[in-house]
Prior knowledge:
Elements: E1 3-4, H1 9-26, H2 30-42, H3 46-65, E2 77-83, H4 90-107, E3 133-139, E4 145-149, H5 154-157, E5 160-165, H6 170-185, E6 193-201, H7 203-214, H8 225-239, E7 254-264, E8 269-276, E9 283-287, E10 293-294
Parallel strand pairs: 2-3, 6-7
Antiparallel strand pairs: 1-10, 2-4, 4-9, 5-8, 6-8, 9-10
Helix pairs in contact: 1-4, 2-3, 6-8
Amino acid sequence: MSTITTTDLEGAVEDAAAHLYVWALKDIPQDLRDALAAARDRETSTTGMRILETIHRNVSIADEQKNLVCQDTGIAVYTCRVGEHFPLHPTRIYAALKAGTARATIEHPLRSNAVHVLTRENTGPNIGHRLPIVHWDFIPDWDGLDVKCVPKGSGSENMSFLKMCVPADGVTGIKKFVLESIVDAGGKPCPPGIVGVGIGGSADYAMYLAKEAIARPVGTRNPDPLVAQLEDELYGLLNETGIGPMGLGGDVTVLQCHIEHADTHMTLNPVAVNYQCWAARRASAHIAADGTIDFDREF
Length: 299
C-alpha cells in the first residue's frame, strides 16, 4: 500500500482508521482470494460452481470500479497491539479510532449501520455508545501500535454460537457442537466462509477467541499441534456436510476452520463459534512512535 508520516500522532491513528475501514471493505486479502479460487476449482456441483463464479465476478467488479465487495459495511471492529512505550494513551487511541470510523463513513460515503439497541434509531456514522468495538493487547518493551480492522456484517455475526460444554464432553463434544452450529446456520452466513472456534477461558473470552480466529490469514494453523490437528479435522468434517455455497448444496461449505484457545478452569469447557462470510474482510496498519503509518504490515 503506502507509508505516511505525520507529526500529529492522534491524527495519524485517525487517518489509519479511516483508511483501514474503507480498504477492508474494498480490497479483500490475497490469501482469501486464493482460497476462493481454490474453492471454485474443486467445487463439483453445478449450482455451487455458478455461485463461486458469481463471487469471483463480484470481486473482479469491485476491483475494477474500486467499490465495496459487499453492501453490508458491518460494524467496525478493531484490534490494537499497543506498545508499552507508544506515546499516545489508549483513551486518545480510542478517540482517534472513533473519529476515523465516522470520517470514513461520511467521506466515502458508507452505509451507517449503528443503531440504539432498543429504539433502533441511528446513532451516527457507524459510531455510537461503545462503537466502534476495540480489543486491546499490550506489548512490553515496544513503542509501536498495530491496528487491524475487521468489519463484521450482520449475516455472519448473527450466526454466532456459544455452549458451556462440560469437561466430560471432551474433544468429541467440541466437534459435535461446531458441526451442529454450522449445519443449523445453513446458508444464512453466506458460505463458503471461515469458521472461527474459541475454546477455553471463560464464556466471554471464548467468543473473543473465536473472533480472533476468523481474522487469521486463511489456512494458517494454530501453533499447538493438538489444536492444529483439530482444525484440520473440523475443516474436513464441515465440508462433508454438503451445505455448499450459499447453502444450496455442494462440496465447499467452508474455506477454512481456525481455532484459538486458552487454558481454562478444571470444571469448564466453553466453546464458541463465530462465522465469517466469504467476504472475510480485514486490513492492518503499523503506526510508529514518530507518526509513520505503514499499511503493508499484517498481524
